[in-house]
Amino acid sequence: MADRIQLNQKSYAKLSRRGLILGGLQVVFIACLATRMRKLQVEEASEYRLLADENRINIRLIAPSRGEVYDRNGKIVARNEQSFRITIVKEDAGDIEQTLYSLSNLIKISQTDATRVIEEIGRSAPFLPVTVRDQLSFDEIARIAANTPNLPGVSVEQGLSRIYPSLESYAHVVGYVGPVSDNDLKRGNESNPLLKIPRFQVGKVGVEKYYEDILRGSAGVMKVEVNALGRVMRNLDRKEGKPGNNIQLTVDTELQSYIQARLGSESASAVVMNCRNGEILAIASSPSYDPNKFVKGISYSDFNELRDNIFRPLASKTVQDAYPPGSTFKIVTALAALEAKIIGPKDSFSCDGKMEVSNRFFHCWKKGGHGKMDLAKSLSESCDVYFYELALKVGIERINKMAMKLGMGIKHDIPMSAITKGLVPSKEWKLNNRKQEWLVGDTVNASIGQGYVLSSPLQLAVMAARLASGKNVKPVLTKSINGRNIHDLENIKDLDIEKSHLKIVKDALFQASNDRRGTAYGSRIINNAYRIAGKTGTSQVRNITDAERENGVTKNEDLPWKRRDHGLFVNFAPYENPEIAVSVVVEHGGAGSKSAAPIARDITLQALFKGKPPLEVYPAKDRSAILEQQNKLGKVLKELEILRRNKV
Amino acid sequence: MTYLEYKIRAVPKGFRKVFYLNWPIILLLCAAGAIGIIMLTSVAGNNWQPWASAQLKRFFVGFSLMIGIAMIPIWFWKSMSVLAYIASLGLLVLVDFFGSTGMGAQRWLDLGFIILQPSEMAKITLIMVLAFYYDWLPDERVSKPQWLVAPLVMIFLPFFLVLQQPDLGTSLLIVIGGGVMMFLAGVHWGYFGAGLSFGVGGILAILNSRGKDWQLLNDYQYRRIDTFLDPSSDPLGAGYHITQSKIALGSGGWTGRGFGQGTQSRLNFLPEKHTDFIFTTLAEEFGFVGGISLLTVYTLIVAFAIIAALRNRDRFSSLLIYGVTVTFFLYFAVNMAMVMGLAPVVGVPLPLVSYGGSSLLVLMVAFGLLQSAHVHKPRGVI
Prior knowledge:
Chain A is an alpha+beta fold. Chain A has 25 helices and 21 strands.
């Protein structure tokens, strides 16, 4: 027994020893754990806290609301509209195809939309909404809302989308916005993260593009807490962005719409300027297009139709097209000659229908000639030979300088797209660009606005405005940004041309419009307070052969459209106290006196009366035709106004 | 000393046994269980459902089981050792054939009323049978090679069966548990030196076998080893668990982010946040203070258990208590080491805290045995 007890004692001691060793090892291990815990939680805590925040906090941008565009009277030209889109969430919808099918019974869903949705849903996380259709009408929203119980996972989301209530009237001026393209991202220093917001839209042309930075505003930031799958759990912080600045244009919507309607389906353009300060009251190009279509995403067929139309609806002809100014350029030649003191108002030349310069005949438009012509008569009756004579004496340098002074050959900076510089040729220009010596014949051609001379309707209007006011007015399209005027329109310098010389030319233009023999007499205004002074122009786009001259020039109407003459007209009014300057160009419209001048008269009256002019200002024999036209346009404008109201 | 030699007279009888329970351990177990309930409420977004309430019920079941087992004399459990061991081996065989598959391994046996994880049971029954063996084996034979065969076979059988599931983590814990029992019984140091070098050789062999036609482990197990060695190498793939768990721990700081404020767990960055990784939530929300508190509770349980073992003159009881202690220690030590990035990710729950019935019940049974050994320990003079 004692042995056993001793044995037991021995084994007990050994067990206890080993037990203590084991306990010691455990304590060491526990100490290791505690040390590790201390290292992670105390020493490296801040580092891990940062990592945890990085894990959970996502920063999302909130698109700012784009600045609005108004006309000079505060009418809305471009604004933002609540737009509705429907989205579908996979995890709530369950059977996507079934849901899409029920949805397609309520609203139109194209096959491409349906396949895109199914594809997108397959790709993205099940809780992320996928857009089925954008820009839904109220009607469609209502139908979906009424059927919500049958459409699991379908929801209507709101956003802002751009809307242009005046439809076609402002397409070329304000342009439109569209989704960010690769080009937009590449261009310049556009690293703005806003551009990466899905569905974000940027200005593509016109004012929308020119003032993109001003209109855009700055993004708001939303901090959201997300879980491991990226699902938003809650909003932590929301800082609204700064909305874009509003822009007020100098354009008068009523006049702009009237002109758009008056130009009708002609391929034509017109500019109306305040001749005292350069404010553009209207700048219209016809035919036009509906910019809203581009915002929604224009269909291929619609776009192709616009692109392939020979009247080029997408082009803003007022600024991006340059035409030979034809006889309207005689204003430049006449002023150049007067300023050079080469002729006085009484000096005269004889026109016998043609003139020989370096073995080549230059013809007057009037077969047989005008006879004895002085400056005033030559302008009023638009004698060409008189200006050929002047050209030889004045020379191209002076003509070039005068043209520049009057705003030609210069790129005017207004917020529209693709503005042309036009062309006022010089000897150096021809040498550099055509690798040819300047010929006297070139000067002769230039003197009547043919040959190399090219100018845009905007430049023609600027010329008329500077002539009328004697001031160095520059075209202005932006009245104010966020209520602050950006142009100083009070202190405009006088033009560096002698007033008396301007007066001579202005009087001559008055004759052109009001003298029985003047080229624009047909488009006169009989009320003294509104009489206009204008200059017609008819610019050839083809050469007239000698054979043709013998057998009689082919009538414009008999030519294919593309080869007909352009009809131009520039004017200012009222003659006594000029307020506005107008230019009208009718592409391939034939003689300016017939095509452009009547339009210019109507526009002038519309602008001066700020609405429909009374019939009494028209010559008696025209009144019935005018009345008919006024009624027709009135109807069109009324419909347009109703559409506009609906959009505002 | 067999149970017939106990001084029966000195053993408390009937209701009085309650006073002889090791109350410090019971209270500490309850403390750990309470921490578990709190954490399960937190990870459910401050909700009693779905985990906390179920866990509380299981805790009560386990607790009653522990007290019940403690009331039955240890000599009864001693006599059941071999039977229990054989039964658990049988269950392991069954689970290999009929078990439910989860996480790429067959581990669970659905008995209808309870879902059983026999590998957990095997840890305890192995300890019982080894304690029984070494209680029976005279001291002088303990280190004799021929007497090492039986315990090695006893360890190898459950190890092999669990490895077949395959569950590398638990099978290694079984080996460690068995090895510790042999060590306690007094097997000569030399054998452990040899065993350890054999183990290291084995690990090297396992690592070398990768990609060869005699590859010893599954690919996913190799990936876990890779991940363990360098978690940042693949933070969104296999290393995700460890990386996120370290972030959660670290972001807790000194005092944590507050109850229910742990972003890592609440936003599901943490994997298995209510089971194996629940310690990270605790450490995130209650910080270093919270983590150390739980570790202290565990340490105290181990300490009181070792004291109980030292004071128990019955060899079987003493060995059993040590065994239970080591099993318990391995649970929390491996789990914590795993979430702190000190050990590879193996499926070991945090004892008494993690959600899950099997390990909780098995632990409570084990502590019941410990209590039984404590209540019925030889008192008086030996």
